[in-house]
Amino acid sequence: MRTLPESAKLVEVGPRDGLQNEKDIIPAAIKVELVDRLTAAGFINIEAASFVSPKWVPQMATSGEVMEKITRKPGTIYSALVPNMKGFEAALAARADEIVIFGAASEAFSQKNINCSIAESIDRFREVAQATKDQGLRLRGSISCALGCPYQGEVALDAVADVAMRLRDLGCDEIDVADTIGVGTAIRVQQVFERVAREFPIHRLAGHFHDTYGQALANIYAALEVGVSIFHASVAGLGGCPYAKGATGNVSTEDVLYLLQGLNIKTDIDLDAVVDAGQFISHYLGRKAASRAGNAIAARRANDPSKETAS
Ligand code: HMG
Ligand code: MG
């Protein structure tokens, strides 16, 4: 077995990636409570908002209100997705701590998701990146379809590395390698990270895995083996991308925490509090959480109230 990292950073993306695909508009108050619960659970980075066109993603139109009403914990980074300068101005007004520019390693997905080519997206991001740096904010870049595309199929390793280089050159502090449709498997995940790590430090690369094919936990383990220590996850396994039909949610945060606890990888996040947050939002949405560990822990507690903790 290769040496695994001693600690990992989990970026909770449920309030953004998790909820963006919900058809019925969720009241801002519910989103605020979700973010506040996640803050209390100990996350130091929560993707809380997305300042995109409300015509494209109506669910995120409440992002300004959410950012205004959340209770911020000093030191916690509240991130917002931004596709252009209009989004940047809104994110700045909403006091986002980190701006996330999001591109793709597949031309077809770039067109569907942000209505422009990869090259055009980088041109748009250049201005956003400069403005982000001028304001002294953190900049993160996300690469969709790094392990496969719903429209074009296979995506070459060099295509992922090429976008990573462009995002690096824009000054990204962190870069996400995203399996948008959850098609990746363990060896390919290692190959992608090893290729991208030739262009950008591995300790600033993040794994963003959707769990459509049930591979996300295996892929996280594979990524840990090659030295990745930042992962995105969504409470209750919420989510999906509106421009990647059939893609299910991100890997569930509860499942990832359970895995990391078992591997003795430190996160400083309270799994019990995350289970509660997952049950809270699932109850609101009227469906069972898509989290195996979350549901198991909740059921165990219900059956035996004396077992109040997850470990
Ligand atoms: P467009 O139609 O080419 O842009 O969309 P436009 O400049 O022509 O603007 C169209 C309208 O939107 C205009 O309004 C603009 O003002 C408005 P109108 O004049 O018609 O009334 N508009 C905006 N409004 C608010 N905020 C903005 C904004 N920009 C324009 N920032 C655009 C281009 C990029 C705007 C559009 O394609 C878009 O918003 N796309 C976002 C799609 C999206 O959010 N997808 C999901 C997030 S990505 C994801 O989930 C993947 C990820 O999780 C990683 C992974 O898993 O792969 C990150
Ligand atoms: Mg995603």
Q: Main traits of this protein?
A:
8 strands; TIM Barrel; binds magnesium ion; 14% strand; alpha/beta; 12 helices
Provide an overview of this structure.
This protein is of the alpha/beta class. It has one domain: Aldolase class I (TIM Barrel, Alpha-Beta Barrel), CATH 3.20.20.70. Helix content is 42%, strand content 14%. It contains twelve helices and eight strands. It has helices at 14-18, 28-41, 63-69, 85-93, 107-114, 118-134, 157-169, 186-196, 216-225, 253-262, 271-285, 292-303; strands at residues 9-12, 45-50, 77-81, 98-104, 138-144, 174-179, 205-209, 230-233. The chain has an eight-stranded parallel β-sheet with strand order 1-8-7-6-5-4-3-2. The longest helix has 17 residues, at 118-134. It is globular, with a radius of gyration of 18 Å. The two termini are 25 Å apart. The mean pLDDT is 96. Bound molecules: 3-hydroxy-3-methylglutaryl-coenzyme A and magnesium ion. Magnesium ion (MG) binds at residues 17, 178, 180, 208, 210, 241, 250.
The kinds of small molecule bound in this structure are: 3-hydroxy-3-methylglutaryl-coenzyme A, magnesium ion
Count of distinct structural domains:
1
Largest sheet: 8 strands, parallel
Within CATH, the superfamily carries the name Aldolase class I
What percentage of the residues does DSSP assign to strands (E)?
5-15%
**How many distinct helices?**
12
Distance between the termini: 25 Å
Strand order of the largest sheet: 1-8-7-6-5-4-3-2
Rounded mean pLDDT is 96
Structural class: alpha/beta
**CATH fold-level label:** TIM Barrel
Helix content: 40-55%
What is the subunit arrangement here?
A: single chain
Uncertain segments are none
**CA gyration radius, whole angstroms:** 18 Å
Indicate the CATH class: Alpha Beta
> What CATH architecture would you give?
Alpha-Beta Barrel
Number of strands: 8
